[in-house]
Structures are given as structure tokens and as C-alpha cells.
Amino acid sequence: MMLAWLMALPAIGGLLAWPAALWHRAAPRWISLAALTLDLLVLLHLWSGSSAPIDITGRGQWIAILQLPWIPQLGISFQLGLDGLSLLLVLLTLGLGIISVIISWTEITERTGFFHFNLLWTLSGTIGVFLALDLFLFFFTWEIMLVPMYFLIALWGHENRTYAAIKFFLFTQGSGLVMLLAILALAFVHQRETGTFTFSYFQLLGTKMQPATEMWIMLGFILAFVVKLPAVPFHTWLPDAHTQAPTAGSVILAGVLLKTGAYGLLRFVVPLFPLAASRFAPVAMLLGVIGIIYGALLAFGQNDIKRLVAYSSVSHLGFVLLGIFAWNTLALQGVVVQMLAHGISTGALFITAGALQERLHTRDMSRFGGLWANLPRLSAIGMFFAIASLGLPGLGNFIGEFLILLGTYQAHPAFAVAGTLGVITAAAYALIMVQKTFHGPPRAAAPAADLHAPHMAVMAVLIAAIIWLGLYPQPVFDVATSGLANLQAATPDGLLLADGRPP
Amino acid sequence: MLHAIWLVPAIPLLGAVILIIGCGRLPSLLVSIIGVGSVALSAIIASFISIGFITTPPPGNAFTIILWHWMAIGSFSPAIGFYLDPLSLIMMLVVTIIGFFILLYSSEFMAGDEGYSRFFAYMNLFVAAMLVLVLARDLLFLYAGWEGVGLCSYLLIGFWYQDPANGLAARKAFIVTRIGDTGLMIGLFLLFTHLGTLEIQPLMLRATQSWPAGSTMPTLAAVLILIGAIGKSAQIPLQTWLPDAMAGPTPVSALIHAATMVTAGVYLIARTHMLFALAPAVQMAVAVIGAATLLVAAFAALNQHDIKRILAYSTISQIGYMFLALGVGAWSAAIFHFMVHAFFKALLFLAAGAITMRLHHEHDIFRMGGLARRLPVAFWSFFIGAASLAALPLITAGFYSKEMILSATWAEGGRIPVLWAAGVITAFLTSLYIFRAVFIVFFGDLKTPVSGHYGPRITLPLIALSLLALIGGFVETPEGLGGITLFSKFLASVFGEAPVVSGSAANLRLLAASLVSLAGAGLAYALYMRSSPRFTAWAATPAVLGWRRFLFTGWGFDRLYNALAVRPFLAIVRVNRNDAVDYVYQIIALTCRMAHQFLHQSQTGRIRWYAGWLAAGSLVTIAISVLQ
Amino acid sequence: MLTVPLLQPLLLAVLLFALGLTGVLVRRNFVFILMSIEIMLNAAGLAFIVAATRWGQADGQVMFAFILVLAASEVAVGLALILRIRHRLTTLDADAADLLRG
Amino acid sequence: MNDAFYVASGIAVLSTALAITRANGVHALLYLVISLLAVALVFYTLGAAFAAALEVIVYAGAIIVLMVFLVMMLNLGGAAAARETQWMKPRVWIGPAILGIVLEAEIVSILARGDAGVPSLAVILPRDVGIAMFGPYLLCVELASMLLLAALAGAYRLAYLERAEG
Amino acid sequence: MSPELFAALPFLALSVTAVAVMLLIAVRRDHRLIAAITLAGLLLALIATGATAPPAPVTLTPMFQVDGFTSFFLALIIAVCIAVVLLSYTYLNQMDDGGPVEEYYLLLLLATLGAAALLASMHFASFFLGLETLSIALIGLIAYPVKRARAIEAGLKYLVLAGVSSAFLLFGIALIYLDFGTMSFTALGRIWDTNPPHGDIYALAGFAMLLTGIGFKLSLVPFHMWAPDIYEGAPAPVTGYVAVVSKVAVFALLLRYFALIGGYRFPSLLWAISLLAILSMLAGNLLALLQDNIKRIFAYSSIAHFGYVLVALLAGTPIALQAASYYLTAYAVTTIGAFGVITLLSRPGIGHDADRLESYRGLMWSHPWLAGALTVLLLSLAGLPPTMGFVAEIYVIASGVGMQLLLPLAALIAGSVIGLYYYLRILAVLLSPAPSLASPPATPKTSPTGGAMLGVLVILLFALGIYPAPLISAIQHATAGLARSRAIYLAEDNTAVTQSPGMPRSPGYDQ
Predict the structure, then answer these.
(1) Where are the domains of chain D?
(2) CB proximity under 8 Å: C 37-96 to E
């Protein structure tokens, strides 16, 4: 039941926060903060109980499982499950959620109630995505995430918000519908196979299919996930959405929402369709490599700081795609760390960009320059995270990228070598950002104030987190291990590689 | 005692962290105490550790300590841990001691700079990262230090951030070295994938056990490591970043771009020398690259007029010697030269800094002159450094280290001693270009007014380093000159016994090499002290001028790379700034819009038209239903 | 009684139906359009009678009666509307009634 | 009987064609009446005497007369006829006419491929129709009355203000 | 009481109310009273529907049959009709063009009666009469504001086009009748059960012409052109009625008809329907794409929506019947809600409704409750959770996937994505900051009944979107009978359609 609360608390908080704005303008903020903190406590409580995991025969170890009837006529149940992988991602979600509330404290002054409602509902949907073990429920929460996010962008976004919001929505929803087709097709194939019509993840695992069928259904899933991830060439919604969203929206989008794509690939695509996934792996890895390079090239070319960070996300998540389809322990652990580290570092960069925009009223880097002199703290923090995102050892991103590439090398050396080139291009865009923004001759008029205390606190937490990830990621690995074992249990032999060599 | 080894990098790191958190608000005195003091402390600890190590060597002449396991995923378990053996001990000492002197120097040199605490923060961070690099037990941890020093190099080259040129130089340095780092990273993948560990010592052992010499795998691995080393150590073809890196403050150039970081490649190859021994072809390539770099950089140095750029090319060239030594298997010679080079090159840079700070940061040697009498401390230290660099016989440390390399090269050289010849020619050129600088800068007429004065924090390091540059070579002398082998004996547990070169032929070569460097100095005197009109006229002929310009730009490597890589990259970026992929979606959107317009216009509002469609639809429906 | 195959009266119905339809499509005057609809409905009625003849049933004629009901209703409402539109637009031109479009 | 059928058919087609092409409203309606009468004859030949009677009484008698009344009331005289002629340019009617012909050709070709059967030769008396109407079709007849009520209410509402407005 | 009479109670309630209203008009014109009586009659009919939902089908003459399916949809359309009455009362009061308003209720009742007859009909005669009663009454309703040129034009357009389509429909029925000598659905089904059809050209041509008539009522492309004009011209409550009752009733009939006669035996017919469905989904959404009249947008979107439900009809499995029923329910709730919002925002006095998209700018800030309701309705139309529209869309897609209708599904996906664009466009207008001064926000004097009704609808949308199980149970119960008759033709669920050579098949599905 705690699992349902995990999902429900933000939703309830959102429902409370909305009308609370009538009472006092700051009330929604406090309510949101309280709801998310409470949720975090629930999660930690669950985590503390993880020493006695629930063992489901053949389905791995779960920290908690919940199953309630929902639409029995259609074989749909309200089924949630928490394992190591989802635990980490929910943790990330809540962490960034709390941070988003804090950074919106001063940025969002209009319609605070509705803002926090949307923020919390997006988070609730995301948590649902990470917990859902029923494919219908998964799709339900997958869609639930979108609408509030649309509002966040369309209402509190910047100059081109409507276009960006609609583009974001169309891409995700269009691909989501294709995934829906695939989910239903899977359910029907399963019904034909076994006679039961169900959307339960556990029951659908191991459904026998013709190779062609498996491939088509898997492609339906993959489309939705790579659009969300995003992988080239389905990424073009991302720069617009990230750029136009308010800071909290960008943080949530980049930090959390993109991870749902990766999570979907991990949780559903490979375990449900191991054979097709292994056939598809080279293509996916190629897409990953293309994403790494292409995203970095585009990031380098941008003048808008948020666009730059957005394209850098494309590049970073290329690594994730690469790692997922390498499907060995090293690469998968790398994927987990990369997701967390990307969430933290990119989130922090968006906060930095948001702070800059708040102070300079532009995102155009050609109008920045030399900010170090006036805003040393902001600049130092911005540079720190730029460096983190170029993958400096000792910081979290490096661990992720290194493990992914190492794992990939064991599976497909050529892709690893190509992906490693991304390390060079990452340096190019991260440093050009630092140069254009913080270095160079001071151009903009001296802005008012450096970061204030709440922001500094947030940044300190993020810095600490990313250094911790970089120097001692073992706790993350330990938590993720059980989750990854659950996934790999579905593919006992690992992904058979294209050249037929087991990893 | 040895267990305190972790303090050596940790103390500078702590200093850096304090300075960063202090965020520029600490008083400058406190900053310098923290900045210099932490490295001093580290140097003292390092010294005690060294004494302990030498007096009571640990079993196997090596000591390992693991602080914590960085990660443990299956068999992949790199540790945050240190490995101390004679090689890393020497590196550690050089880094901490030279680092201490340079930081001491900086505390005065940088006084008054608005980024004073930032400077010390970065420098301390650098020292910490460099110590990690040399002390790391695992290749991955080494890589962390490797990237860390790269980052600090970037930060310090671009230290004066308001000038975009500095930023460009910094980025160039970072990205070019990163190209090399990528090679190293792939090398790590390969090594771990095939040998199952990244701990250096077991790794080397496994490599020798499981890979036959000359086979593909060690060759590949060695090539990848070599790429990393080339990038870091500014060897051909990745040398172009180093001259530009001189944009940073002079102490930075001294510490990072002369004494320590740029020689990390040498250390890396020495550290993994067993692997290179398994790949003779690659080892040959190391030697060839070293020899080529020697010559190329020396010629370029001859044509510079920025004093720091002369030194930069000289550094490239001198590292070429080290590579040459590595390539011929004279591992300890390479390390010996590394150490000596650290002494005299740091000295040269600090002296150059001492000059420029008194000349309002004038770097052009042709606008200096006659400084010998006005700046005696700077002159004498620069002169000693130059002598050591030029390897003036007997009295300078450079003489002994260079001799060791040249004799090893001769021994390895085979029938045609091309490599040896390159070394000797470069010795001549080295002498020529550095004395060219000496004569132009210190003699002749005073061209720029001198101001200010030196405090003890500048003179002390200069004196100390001068001493080292003179006497530092007596730990290893050729057979003909006493045959002291303290240094190579000490390293023998790492590299094995070095072969002793002896005989009259060796002494003859020794004599010849000495004459060569003296001849270079002499020629410099002839050309630049007594400016001969014939030489000036010859130097101004168009053909020569063209060559000089070509050499001035460092053999046109920058232009080549601009044309081959940088410009195409920028062109692609510019063309694709708006993301070509997005056009696909825009076309889809446009198609929908056009379809909408078309259909929209079909809604004419006319009833007969509507009825017509009704009839037509019916016609089609009937046709499909019946005639299908 | 008729002894030819029923195809022939059926063809007559089709012909009348098509003529009515052509009338709807061709004429611009609402009155003529209404008239043409009546022709079409009548043709449909004829088809029912033909069918009833084939089976010897009364149902076709019942349907015909219902069609008459529809035809009468259409005319009644239609004429009222025509009066209205004439009042508003001062024309019976069907093409002129295109306020609603797009 | 067959001859009567052919003659009546011919008249029906001809007069319908004339009805939809006349410019003058009254003329057209009169042609339509002729057509309806001819169809009534066809009904008769098909053995549907009751339907024939309804056709004459209700269709030709009531509905068309109502329309004649309307045409008179709207005073679609000479000017209107001239406008009608003007509207009847080939450019206007050629497209719809082709559509009509194609549709007809299609249906005809379909029907010709099938079998429409032959007359059953059973005479259906008005009595049979009545029995059907008040037997199985009883509720339908009730519904038809509701249909008429709807038409009545609608027409009433739509024409309501016409008196007041003149 | 005989079971027949008992089953006929809802119909009787409707007829009696209609007659009572007619008589009362003759006696005393009192808007409030007549509205109240209408409402009472409808409530009575609704209660009767609920109370009399027969456990087994009850036949009322060979023409009609009342069963669970009938009762379900009857309840739905009566409920919708009640909503329309609630909306209309204030609207008519404010319209005030000097003419009588009371006939409106009479027409509404008659139209509902026609729709009810459609739902129960088992025979072409009752089908035809129900349809025409509905149509003729609708013409009166559409053109009810006689002072509005647009309303008159809409009425006339509907009259002419409905007349033409009726002629097609009738001719089609005649051809079917000619071929088989019966007009009863069950009899037709039985004939084909004993003699499997081969080349019944007349019947096929008849079905096709019938399809023209039905396609017209459902405004499927290319029979759709009237819809936007009529939606725009008719007064907003009537538009809601046209959009919901006439379409839902016709579609429900189509479901029953198809199931009973076994239309699935005719692959070419399925082909034709597929084509109509695909065209409707694509063209409907494309037409709405940049439209700036909100009523027209809803017209186009309804075209598309019926394209979606046709996918369920094409699939024809039990799950598809449920899907179609659920979809129609969701559609009814949503659409009537949407037109409710338009009605409440309209000031009928000024001669047109609040239908310019521009007049909705910033509505979220001037009328938060109405705009909030509209937002929810739009989300439901777009098929987003947690609304009924979401479940409905999934249901329909599920039925399509179950039968591997790849081409229609592809069109469905493409159509929904295009559709999303304009729903979001409306949403963006609602949310845009300052309300424009050019067109001041519509009347704040919204009727409390209308508001309450909207509230109920929105709650329903959420409740049945989040927990649809009860409604699904009801639908399963309602469609069980139909599914049984369907099962006769589809001994095995997923063979009939896929075996037909013409149907599109997935290349990748199990062979």
C-alpha cells in the first residue's frame, strides 16, 4: 500500500496546492514541498525495508509489490512494484522535484497554485511510470505525465512556448499511441498463446512470438521510448521544449522525463522481446552513437544557452541508448549512473541557465560574456557542471560514460570506439559554453545579484551528489544490482550479439 | 610512514577545496599560506616517505595502499589507491618539490591579481591531480589524475579569462589533449576486456604472460596508450597546443607545461613499459616520434621571438628526447632526463617570468636586451638554465641526462644511427636557439625600461632551482666520467638493470656531443652577439624569410589542422545550426497544412456541391462494394 | 398484369432516380431542388413497388405509403424554409446561401 | 398491359426530363404532375392499384399542388424564368449531368448483371395493404404520425412569423 | 402488465409527453411549464428505461425489439436530451426573437422519439421512419431561430441533403427488399445463414446505397460536408443534440444491424467502410486543423471520431462492440459537455453563438470554471487520461489491434496526432494571457442548471476515466445479446475478417 501512497502523495499534494493559492500565494509552495518531502520519507521507509526483498519466482527480487483490481474485464489491474532500478529513479524524481519547487520559489509568481498542481502531477505520473507493472497502467501514467507538462510549458514558458509545448506533446503522444498499439498487440498475442487477456508485466514476460511479430511489437515500444529518450532522429522536440519551459520544467523534463524513455527500454523492451532486441541492438547502438555525435555537434553550434544544454542532453542520452543495448552488467550499471548523473548535472545547468535568464533577461550567449567578474558563484557552479557534463573523472557523468563505453566495448568494440569520440565533442560544447557565458570580456551590464542562499543550497546538494556519484558510486550499484538482475533474469543468456558471440 | 602516502595528494586537494569554498573572499596572505603551505607540507611528507622508502624498502620494493574501492561490478573493481615504487617516488618528489618552489614563486609573482585565490586553488588542484596521476595504483585512477591535470591546465591557461585569445588557447589545449585521452580511454577498454583488470602491476604481468611479443593485442594496446601519451606530452602530431598554452601565467607554464604535466606521457609509457616491450613496432614508433619531434620543435624554437614560446618549443623538443629514450628502451634515461628537465625548464620559465614581470609583461625577446646587468638574478638563473638545457659539458645536469639518452640511442641504433644523429643535431640546435635567446635578451642595448624589484619569494626558488639544474645530474654519470649509477640502480627494480655503455668509442662520442653543444653556443654568439650584416641580409632574403615564417608557425601544423578538421567542423556546425532533422518534421507539418487548405476550400458552402459529393461518394461506395 | 422481367420497371426507377439527382445537382433554384428530391423519393417508391411485385407482398406498398409521408413532410418543412430564406436573402438561389462555409 | 407499361415509362422519363430542365416553375411542375401520373400507371401495371391511387391523390394531388401554390405565391414569373435560363448554362450543368449519368450507368450495369426476377402475378388488394399496415406495421404507422406531427410543428414554427412580417 | 407494454414504457412516456406538450401549447403557452413537463416526461422515460431494462429481448411487433442494447443507448440519449433541455431553457429565454419557443420542446421530444425508435428497430421500415422522424424534427430545431440567416441556411441545407441521402437510403432498402423479399434484419440474417451469400449484387448495391444514407447521418467523409455548416448555423444546444443524439442513435443502429444481418460476410462492404473510416479520420482532423470557428472544429472532430468508432465496427468482436459502446458513451458525455460550454458562453440575443475561437482567448482567467470544464472535455476528446476519452480510445484501438486492422489503425494514429494539434490549439487560446478587448467575454450570467450539469459531466468524465469498470460491466451486459448473434457468424473470433482476402493484414503478425 505504501507504493500507492508513493504515487498518490504528489497527486494529493497537487490537488491541495491548487486551491491553496486562493488562500495565500506562497501556500502552494509549502504544500508541494511538504508533499514531496513526505513522499521522500515514504520512499526512504520502503528502502529501509529493502533488506527483506520479496522474491517472486523467476521474476527477481522486489522491494515492494502492490496489486489491486482495476478493470478486471480487460485483464487490467493496478499493479505497482519497486525494485532497485525504480527506487533510484524515483529517488531522482523526488530529489529533483523538491529542487524544482525550491528554484521556482522566486521564479514563479503567477498562478502558483496551478503551477504546483501541474508540477506535482507530472511527478506523480513519472513515479507511476517507474512503478507500474501493468502495461495499461504504465501507458496511463505515461500519458498522465504529459498533460501537466504541457501546461507547465504552455503557461509559464518563454516567448515561443505554445509552439514548443504543442511540439513536445505531438511527438510524445504520437509515439505513445504507437506504443499503445504495440502493448495491445502484445496482449492479444499473449491471449492467443495462453488464453488469458492480461496486461500484467509478469505474465507477459516470456510470451512466445514469431520473430517477425516480436520485432514489430518491439519496434512499437521502442519508438515511444526513443522519442522520449530522445534518440536522433526523433529528438527535435527536445530543444524547443527544454528551451521554452520554465526552469523547473526544464529540470523535470531533462532530469526525469527523459529517463522514462530509458527506463522503458530497460524494463520493457529488452525483457519482453529479448530476441528481437538482440537483433535490433546494432541499429539501436548505431542510433545511440549518432545521437552522441550529432547532439554534441548541434550543441556546439547553439547561441541559446538552454538550447545548448538541451542538445547536450541528446548527446548524453545517446550514451544511455548505447549502454542499454550493450546489455551487460557493466554497461547497465553505467546506464543507471549516467541517468542519475545526467539528471543532476543537466538539471543544475538548467538552473544555472534559468538564473542567468532571470538576471539578464536573455538566453543568448552572444549577449553574455565575462560574467565571472560579476557573478563568481554562479559562474563557478556553471563551470563545475559544464565540466561534469564533459565527463571529468571524479564526477558522476564520467562513471556513467566510462562504464557504458567499457560495457559496450565488450559487446561491440566498434560502437564503443565511435562513442568515445563523443567525449571529445562534449569537451567542445561544454567549453564553448563556459567561454561564451562566463569567460571573455564582460559584455552584459552588471547584473543585480549573485545566487542567493536557497539556490546555493540546492547547488551545494547537487554538487555533493555528483561528486559522491563520481567518487563512491558503489551504493548506487548495490541498489541497482537487484533491479538489473530482475531485468537480466528475463534474458538469461544476455543479449545474443549480432555476431553470435555472447558477451 | 608509507601509509601516510595518501596525505601527499590529499593535502593540496584540501587546500584547493578550502580556497574554492572561500570563493575569493579570503585575505591574500591566508590564501598564499594555504596555497603554498599545503604543497610545502605535501613535499615534506613526500620527502619523509622517500627517506623511509629508501632506508627501509618495503617488500618487493613497492608499496600499495587502497583507500576504498571505487567501484565493484563483477570483476571490474578499480580502487582509489596508491602505488609507490622508485619510479613514482621520483615523480612524486619532483612534483612536490618543484611544485613547492613554483608556488612560492607565484605567491609573489601573482600578487595583486584579482584571481589570486582562484590561481592557488587551481594550482593546488593541479598538484593534487598530478600526484594522483603518478601515484595511482589503477590505470583508471591514473586516468582520473590524467584528466584532472588536463582540466587544471585548461583552467590555468585561460586563467586571465577576459581575453578571448586565452580562452581559445585553453580550449585548444584541452581538446587536443582530449583527442589523445580518448585513445588512452579506448586502451583501457581493451586492456580490461582482454586482461580483466586495470591494476597496473598485475595488468603488466598478465600482459607478458598471455600475450606473445609482437602480437596484435599488445601492439594495439600500446598504440592506444601511445596516442594518449602523445596528446599529453605534446609530441607530433598533437604538439600544436603547447606553444599556445603559454597564454597562462608564467608559473603555470613552468609547473604544468614544462616540469610536470607534459611529461605525464613519458611517465605513462615508462609505467607501462612492459607493454611496450611486447610491442617492438610501437616502441620503435615512440622513438621515431621522439626524434621527429626533437628536430621539428627545435627548428621552430629557433624562429620564435616570444620568450615563452621559445621555451615551449624547447619543452616539446626536450620531451622528444625522453620519447627517444623510451623508444630505445632506455627507461631510466628518460626518467632521468625528465627530472633534470624539470629542474632546468622550471628554472628557465621562472627566470623568464622574472624578466617579464619587470618589463611590464613584455614577451618579445627583440624588445628586450641588455638585461644582464640590470637583472642579475634573472640573468644568472636563466643562464644556468640555458646552459643546462644546452647541455654544456660537465658542469650542467642536462649534459649528463642527454648523454645517457644519446649513448642509449647509439647502442640501440643499429647500422645507421639515424635516431642518434637526430639527437645530436638537436643538441646543436638546442644550444643555438637557447643561446640566441640569452644573447638577445641579456646583451646589447636596453630596449624596455625596467621597473620594480624582486622579493625573496622570487629569488629563493630561482637560486634553489639553479643549484638543482647544475648539480642534479651527478646522480648518474657516464662510464667515462665516473660511472655513477645511483639513479638507474634506484630504478632497477622497476625497469631492470640498464646496460652499461663503455669503451673508447663511447668516450669519443661523448666528446663529440660536448663539442656539438659548445659549437651551438658559439655559433649563437657569432650570429647574435656580433650581428654580422651578411647573416642579417641572408636571413632577410625572401626564400629564407618564407622558411622562417613557416618555422615560426611551428611547421604550419595549425594551418593544416584548421583546414582539415577545425574549419570543416565549424562549417558543419554552422550549416546544421538549426538541425536539419527538424526540417523533416516541418515538411510533415507543412503537408498537413496544405492538405488542410485544400480540404478547407472544398467546403464551399454551396449545397449543390455538397450534394454532388454525396452522389460521388455513393458512386464510389457502390463501386467498391459491388465491383470490387 | 405485367409480364416483362422486373428489370425493366426497375430500370425505369433508376432512370427517374438519376434524373432527380441530376435535377438536384443542376438547378440553383430551391424550389426546383425540392422538386427534384420529390422525383428521387418517388423513384425509390417505384423501386419498392417493383420489389413488392416480385414477391407478391403488401410490404412494398406500405413502404410506399411511408415514403409519401416523408415526401409530404419534406415539402411542408421545405416550403416553410424556402419562404424564410426568400425573406432573408430575397433570392431562391441555392448558391447564394453560402454564409456557412470553410 | 406490357404496352401500357412501355408507353407510361416513356412518358414518365420524358416528362421528368422536361420537368427538371424547364425554366418556368409552373411548367416544370405540370410536367412533373404528368410524370407522376405516368408512374401511377406503371404502378397499376405492376399490380399495385392502391399505390397508384395514392400516387395520384397524395403525390400529384396534394404535394405538387402545394408546390404550385408556393411557386405562385413566390411569383416566379418571367423574370425568374429568365434568370433560370441564365443559370442553365452548359458550364453549370455539364458536370452534375455527367455525375448523374455515370451514377445511373453504374447502377444500371450492376442491376443488369443481377437478377431482378419476374412479377409474382399475385394481385395485392388495398385490403392486403390495410391488413399489413394495421398488423405488423401498426407501430410504424404510429411513428409515421409522429413524423407528420414533427413536420407540422416544424413548418408551423418556421412559417410562424411570416404573417406578422408580411 | 404484459411484458410488451412494460418494455414499451419509455417509448410511451416519450410519445405521451410529446402529445401532452402539443396539447398544452394549444391551451396555454408557458415556457417554464412546458419545459418542466418535458423534463418530467424525459425523466420518467429515463426511469422507465432503467426500470424496464428487460432481461431477455422483448419484441414489439416484428418491427421493434427492446433488449439490453436498446435500453443502454436509450438511457444515454434520454440523458443527453435532458441535458439539452437544461441548456436550452435559458438559451431560449435569452434568444427572445418574438416567436414561440414552446414548439422547440415538442420537436425535441419527437426527435428523441425518432432516435428511440431507431434504437429499437429490427426492420427497415421502422429504421427508416425513426430516422426520418429524427431528421424532420431536427430540421425544425436547427432552423428554430428563424431570425438568423445562418440558422435558416443550415436548416435548408440539412433538409436538401437529408432528402437526397434519404432517397439513396430508400433506394438501397428497395434493392435489398427486391433481392430477398424481406426487410427484417433477423430474417435477412437467417437467409444468409442458410445460403451463404455469393454475388448478391442487388443486396450489395443496396447496402452501399444504405451506407450513403447512414454515412450522411454520421457525417462520414465524403458525405460529411453538411456537418460543419449545420453545426455552425444551428443554435448551440441543438448542435449538441445533432452531434450526439442523431449520431449515436444511428451508430447504435448500425451496430445492431451489422450484427444481426451479419454484414461481416461481405468483405467488399468492409472494404468500403474501411475506406470511409480512413477518409473520415484523416480528412476530419485535417479539416479541423487550422479552423477558427469552434463549432466547426467540433463538427470536423466529430467526423474524425466516427471514423474511429468505425474501426470498432469493422473489428466486430465482442470487445469491439463494447469498445464502440464505450466510445459512444464517452463521446456523448464529452460532446454534450463541450456544446454545453458553448451554450453557456453564448448570448443568443446577439444573433450568433460564441463560436469564434478568438472569443475564447484568455477564458481560463475570465471564466475559470467554464474554461476548466472545457479543458477537461478537450482532453477527453483528445483521448488523454484520466478521462473517459482515454479509455475509449484505448478500447477502440484494442479492438482494431485484435483484428489486425492495420490500415485503419494507422489512420487512427495519424488522425489522433493531427487531432491533438487543434485540441491543443484551442487549449492554448484558452490559456493565453490577456482576454482580448475586442470581443468582450461572453455572458457571465450562466444558468446554474447548466453549470451543475457541466459539473456532473466533468465528474463523470473523470470518474469513468479513472475507474471505468462499472460502466464496462454495464456495457458488457448490454452488448452480450448482440455479441451472441454476432457469434453465429464468427464462430471463431478472429477468423472471419482476417480470412477475407481484401482486408489489410499486418506483415508482421502471426501467420
Answers:
(1) 2-133, 134-166
(2) 37, 40-41, 43-45, 47-48, 50-52, 54-55, 57, 59-60, 62-63, 66-67, 70, 73-74, 77-78, 81-82, 84-85, 88-89, 94
**Residues A157-177: tens digit of each pLDDT:** 888 888 999 999 999 999 999
The CATH fold of domain D2-133: Four Helix Bundle (Hemerythrin (Met), subunit A) (1.20.120)
Q: Exposed/middle/buried for D79, CB within 10 Å: 0-12, 13-18, 19+?
A: exposed
A318 grid coordinates: 545517446
In a domain, C94, yes or no: no
Q: What is the DSSP letter of E223?
A: S
> Looking at the complex, does the CB of residue B589 fall below 8 Å from at least one CB of chain A?
no
Residue A252: its H or E element:
helix A247-252
pLDDT in tens, B572-587: 888 888 888 899 999 9
Query: What is the three-class DSSP state of B443?
Result: coil
Tell whether the model's pLDDT for residue E443 goes beyond 70. no
D28·C35 Cβ contact <8 A: yes
pLDDT band at E498, cuts 50/70/90?
Answer: very low
Number of domains in chain A: 1
Size of chain C, expressed as the number of residues it contains: 102
The domain spanning residue C44 has which CATH number? 1.10.287.3510
How large is the ipTM?
0.91
Q: What is the pLDDT of residue E105?
A: 95
DSSP 3-state of E99 = coil
d(CA E468, CA B206): 65
Contact of chains A and D by CB distance (3 or more pairs under 8 angstroms): no
Query: CA C8 to CA C50: how far, in whole Å?
Result: 10
* CA dihedral sign of residues B56, B60, B61, B65: negative
Cell numbers of A25, please?
A: 500565494
Subunits in contact with chain D (3 or more CB pairs closer than 8 Å): B, C, E
Q: What is the pLDDT of residue B613?
A: 92
Q: DSSP states of A317-355 as a string? A: HHHHHHHHHH-SHHHHHHHHHHHHHHHHHHHHHHHHHHH
Weakly modelled stretches of chain D, pLDDT under 50: 162-163, 166
How many residue pairs bridge chain C and chain D with CB atoms within 8 Å of each other?
Answer: 249
Residue with cell 435558416: E152
The HSE-up count of residue B130 (CA atoms within 13 Å, CB side) is 34
| pLDDT tens column, E194-227 | 877 776 888 889 999 999 999 999 999 899 999 9
Give the separation between CA E480 and CA B409, rounded to whole angstroms.
96
* Residues in contact with B483: Cβ distance below 8 Å, sequence separation at least 6, in sequence order: B477, B500, B502
Q: Identify the residue among E401, E404, E423, E472 best suited for mutation to test binding to A, counting A beta carbons within 10 A and taking the highest.
A: E401
- Neighbouring chains of E at 3+ CB pairs within 8 Å? A, B, C, D
Instruction: Report if residue A495 sits inside a domain.
Output: no
pLDDT band at A466 (very low <50, low <70, confident <90, very high): very high
E463 reaches A (C-beta below 8 A)? no
- What separation in angstroms does the CA of B136 have from each of A226, A415, B66, B192? 39, 29, 10, 16
B296 interface with A at CB cutoff 8 Å = no
* Host domain of residue A113: 2-490
Look at residue E374 and tell me whether its pLDDT is greater than 90. Answer: yes
pTM exceeding 0.90? yes
- Quote the CA–CA distance of A167 and B585 in Å, as a whole number: 10
Is B574 near chain C, with CB under 8 Å? Answer: no
Mean pLDDT (chain E) is 87
**Torsion angle of the four alpha carbons E274, E278, E283, E289, in this order, in degrees rounded to the nearest 10:** 150
Mean pLDDT of A235-248: 91
Collapsing DSSP states into helix, strand and coil, what is residue B20?
helix
* Nearest CB to B615; choose among C21, C33, C102: C21
Percent of chain D with pLDDT over 70: 95
Q: Note whether D154 contacts B: Cβ–Cβ < 8 A.
A: no
